[in-house]
Design a protein that fits this description.
Number of strands of chain A: 11
Number of helices of chain A: 0
CATH class of chain A: Mainly Beta
Low-confidence stretches of chain A: none
Number of helices of chain B: 18
CATH class of chain B: Alpha Beta
Mean pLDDT of chain B: 92
Bound molecules: FE2/S2 (inorganic) cluster
Low-confidence stretches of chain B: 78-84
Distance between the termini of chain A: 6 Å
Largest interface: A-B, 35 and 34 residues
Largest sheet of chain A: 6 strands, antiparallel
Strand content of chain B: 5-15%
Oligomer: heterodimer
Helix content of chain A: under 10%
CATH topology of chain B: TIM Barrel
Radius of gyration of chain B: 22 Å
Strand content of chain A: over 45%
Shape of chain A: elongated
Largest sheet of chain B: 8 strands, parallel
Strand order of the largest sheet of chain A: 1-11-10-4-3-2
Chain lengths: 121, 417
């Protein structure tokens, strides 16, 4: 296993995505709310650049105990990565599709050491 | 623990303030190389541009001077959320190419649409693409019928003169102003011989019966010229009374795009059109595929009981439908391979199915949706990705420069079939 340098801590702005090409790997490193996440930048749908789109919190329908609908809202606890090709969404923390957890992005470990951020490949 | 290294790695920071089709479709280009698409011709029978972006140019071609002024002043609005015909194709900004494409930098010539078409075609490995407009697909819903006629002429002239005449890889099936049957015939006669015209297209979101006698001359003219007739579906948002109940675009899209072609196919069959115009080839575009076995089964069952309702038919409705052509996109490919395979069998996909990307729209399909199907032979894949369309449109074999270069680099590959 190799640890590939991504950046110095503080080098990327929050919300940024850096694509790291290493050997045959194409890995997207996302800095979101102070935490780094690394995923294979290939969408399980049609192979799009899964991490190069926007991020949005999961959308929820608000329904009360009587089954009545009261509009939509965001679940801010569940941030999603959105693939820009067709809109498949993946949980930022797990890489899983919200409707089918077998559809997921391949996750890589992040290692922070000596003020630098690495991805374990 | 492995080695800490920055060596050997390359980096690219994603910048959503810029857009370039070649970057956005880099993975499509990788797929094209991995699958060796340079070995055969790929034809995309349904792709799009945004005529709204060239609307000032198109408006100059409108013959009616009053409407020309109005169109130049007013523009061609696609309809926003405020008019109850909301168009939510871009999913609240999730499909970034919708807005970002305006930032794409292209050289001053050729026409911007030609450059953009070539970029995505080269990325996907597509050699020839049939280009259609976008908001005009719902033009027939305008209460002003004369707008449809005027714009059909203006758009068709613009398309032939500014785009098709300048790139043999870009073709089109021209817009028929279906509200006006006489004009449909005139359009066919005026444009059928123009370079790049490979057929004519009816937008399925209209409310004229396709079997009406007033269209007979147009159909005969197409049949005699050997040019196919396409029915290109759309959502029909806000027009169809039943569809107005759908509050989510997912519902509108699921139902609308299928519904309009189900409607016209049913009339086409029950009125015996395949017997009345036996050499006229029809192509049913952008309804996916799942609707076809549904309609086949319903019509076959009914026809056995109600033969007198469709006495012109000499065979089962599905027998006629199996001789028609279908575009692939948006192909229902989520998780039921068995069903997809049965659908391919029912529609004789190996000879009747034509690949379509619908690029750049949100639900576009890459050639890999066909190429990666495990139940298709290599020959069936090549037929669907190009061969069937080549036969339908009588196209010469064309390979893009990008693919020719790849073949040359490989050295002495056999000629494409
Ligand atoms: S390729 Fe990612 S959503 Fe389709």
């Amino acid at each position: 296993m190799a640890e590939v340098l991504v950046c110095k801590r503080g080098e990327l702005a929050d919300g940024a995505v850096r694509i790291v090409y290493f050997d045959k790997h194409e890995i997207a490193v996302i800095l979101q709310d102070g935490a780094y996440y690394a995923y294979r930048n290939v969408c399980p749908h049609q192979g799009g650049p899964a991490c190069e789109g926007i991020r949005v919190p999961r959308v929820i329908d608000v329904v009360d105990e009587h089954g009545a609908y009261h509009g939509q809202s965001y679940d801010k606890e569940q941030m999603h990565i959105v693939c820009p090709w067709h809109g498949y969404e993946f949980n930022l923390k797990t890489g899983e599709h919200p409707g089918n957890n077998r559809i997921k992005l391949k996750k890589y470990d992040i290692v922070e050491r000596g003020g630098e951020v690495y991805v374990a490949v | 623990m492995g080695n800490a290294t920055g060596f050997g790695a390359r980096y690219r920071d994603v910048d959503l303030t810029e857009f370039d089709t070649r970057q956005a479709l880099e993975h499509a280009a990788n797929q094209a190389v991995e699958r060796r698409y340079e070995d055969f011709m790929i034809v995309d029978c349904d792709s799009h541009h945004y005529e709204t972006e060239s609307f000032k140019e198109i408006a100059e071609y409108i013959e009616d001077p009053v409407m020309r002024h109005e169109a130049t002043y007013q523009g061609f609005s696609g309809g926003g959320i405020n008019i109850g015909k909301g168009n939510h194709q871009e999913m609240g900004g999730r499909i970034i190419r919708y807005r970002a494409r305006k930032k794409e930098i292209v050289p001053p010539s050729p026409h911007r649409d030609i450059t953009l078409m070539r970029r995505w075609m080269d990325a996907m490995g597509t050699d020839v693409a049939c280009m259609f407009p976008t908001p005009m697909l719902n033009l027939a819903l305008s209460p002003r019928e004369d707008i449809e006629t005027q714009l059909a002429w203006a758009y068709n002239r613009w398309l032939c003169e500014r785009i098709l005449a300048h790139d043999t890889r870009i073709r089109s099936m021209l817009y028929l102003p279906f509200h006006n049957p006489e004009e449909c015939l005139k359009v066919v006669n005026a444009f059928a011989e123009k370079p790049g015209v490979i057929g004519f297209m009816v937008t399925s979101t209209h409310y004229r019966a396709v079997h009406d006698n007033t269209y007979a001359k147009t159909y005969r003219a197409l049949e005699e010229r050997g040019l196919p007739l396409a029915f290109h579906s759309a959502s029909g948002t806000g027009s169809e009374e039943g569809l107005r109940l759908l509050n989510r675009f997912m519902g509108v899209h699921t139902m609308g795009f299928s519904w309009h072609n189900i409607l016209h196919m049913t009339n086409w069959i029950t009125n015996g059109m395949p017997e009345r115009f036996p050499r006229l080839k029809t192509l049913w575009i952008e309804s996916g595929l799942a609707w076809v076995p549904f309609v086949m089964q319903r019509l076959d069952n009914e026809w056995m009981m109600r033969n007198s309702d469709a006495p012109l038919l000499k065979r089962l409705p599905s027998d006629y439908m199996r001789e028609m052509f279908y575009s692939t996109q948006p192909m229902e490919m989520v998780n039921n391979l068995e069903m997809l395979q049965a659908t391919f069998k029912m529609i004789n996909a190996e000879t009747q199915l034509c690949y379509a990307s619908d690029y750049p729209h949100w639900d576009m399909d890459l050639p890999s949706v066909i190429y990666d199907q495990p139940f298709l032979s290599e020959q069936a894949k090549r037929n669907i990705l190009g061969g069937n369309a080549q036969r339908l449109f009588k196209l010469d074999t064309i390979l893009s420069d990008v693919k020719l270069q790849r073949r040359a680099a490989r050295g002495g590959a056999s000629p494409p079939q």
